[in-house]
Amino acid sequence: MPTPHSLGEPTECWWEDINRAGTEWYQTCSNNGLVAGFQSQYFQAVLDREWQFYCCRYSRRCPYACWLTQEYPGHYGEDVDMVLYSQGYYIRGASTTFSGVDRDRQWKYIICRMTEFDCQFENF
């Protein structure tokens, strides 16, 4: 994912913890980070993927005005088609549920704005 121009270059980046296939998962980037990428690995035994976020922090900016989106996709078995139309909002994390019957996931994304100034908090 390209770096948002308004945030400048990332100060540091890291991989967050991996979820376990077949389970619910809630992950927010630590250290005031934003999701800059992700990776997954498929496990045939449970017909699911393990996910991991790549997070980056930008200077000492902090997220605020965060909210959780509706579920994507709307129903198990559908493709995800999400567009974030609001300028100045970024993905900070996600919550996901897994259906053992449908062998599929639904996602809710944590969307935040970022301060225009350096903040002093370690994790907001």
Instruction: Give the number of helices.
Output: 0
Structural class: mainly beta
In total, the number of strands is: 7
Kindly report the spatial arrangement of strands forming the biggest sheet.
2-6-7-5
How much beta, percentage-wise? over 45%
Helicity, as a percent range: under 10%
Terminal Cα span: 23 Å
Uncertain segments: none
Overall mean pLDDT? 88
Largest beta-sheet characterization: 4 strands, antiparallel
Q: How large is the radius of gyration? A: 15 Å
Write the element-wise H/E pattern from the N-terminal end onward: EEEEEEE
Q: How many independent structural domains?
A: 1
Shape by Cα distribution: globular
GO biological process, one term: collagen fibril organization
Pfam family, one: DERM
Subcellular location: Secreted
Keywords: Disulfide bond, Secreted
Write the layout of secondary structure elements.
Layout: E1 12-15, E2 25-28, E3 34-43, E4 48-57, E5 63-68, E6 89-99, E7 104-114
Antiparallel strand pairs: 1-4, 2-6, 3-4, 5-7, 6-7
